[in-house]
Amino acid sequence: MRIWLFLHLLGFTLWIGGGWAVMFAGIAARREGREGLGTVARAQAAVHRTVIGPGALLTVLSGLLLTFMVTGNSGELRGSNTWLAVMQGAGLIGALLTLFISLPTAVKLGRLDPAGEGAAYFDELRSRQKIVASISGTLGLVALISGAMLG
Questions:
Q1: According to the model, what pLDDT value does residue 111 have?
Q2: Cα angle at 7 between 9 and 50, to 5 degrees?
Q3: How far from each other are the two terminal CA atoms of the chain, in whole angstroms?
């Protein structure tokens, strides 16, 4: 069980830490010209593919395994409480948003030319990415705080 808890914490650290890195890179990119945004978007896409996506997936899978280990055959959580439910719900929704909306959007942004014909689409995807990543990150932080309140 300890290895799954370690993997859960590792995945969460990758997911949220990568999200913070991408957020600060996006804030710093405000000073860049249109041509520089392409480089930033490609770097952010790489972080999404190699750090954030795998971290979110690892967090969800290890969290599910931990839940099944705790429930056993009874299907009922021993010592279940509200903080655990909030952690699981917020984490799952945040990870699903990350894996199915934020990650594909980041990959598309990394492929587009922000100054060429696709500039309007680039801006549209960038706006979507800001909103979805903000919601996902907030849910991740809610899950983190809820997990801390369990102890």
A1: 94
A2: 90
A3: 17
Cα separation of 12 and 55, whole Å? 6
In the chain, the number of structural domains is 1
Q: What is the rounded distance in angstroms from the CA atom of residue 32 to the CA atom of residue 11?
A: 31
Helix ranges (H only) for the chain are: 2-28, 34-47, 53-71, 82-97, 103-111, 119-150
- Please return the burial class of 76, using the count of CB atoms within 10 Å of its CB with bins 0-12, 13-18 and 19+: exposed
The candidate with the shortest Cα–Cα distance to 105, out of 150, 45, 149, 50, is 45
C-alpha torsion sign, points 89, 101, 60, 54: negative
User: What is the pLDDT at residue 105?
Assistant: 97
Q: Which domain holds residue 114?
A: 2-150
pLDDT band with cut points at 50, 70 and 90 for residue 75 = low
Residue 146, CB half-sphere, CA atoms under 13 Å: how many? 18
- The whole-angstrom separation of Cα 38 and Cα 115 is 8
Tell which residue, 13, 21, 11, 10, has the closest CA to residue 46.
Answer: 21
Please tell me the pTM assigned to this model.
0.89
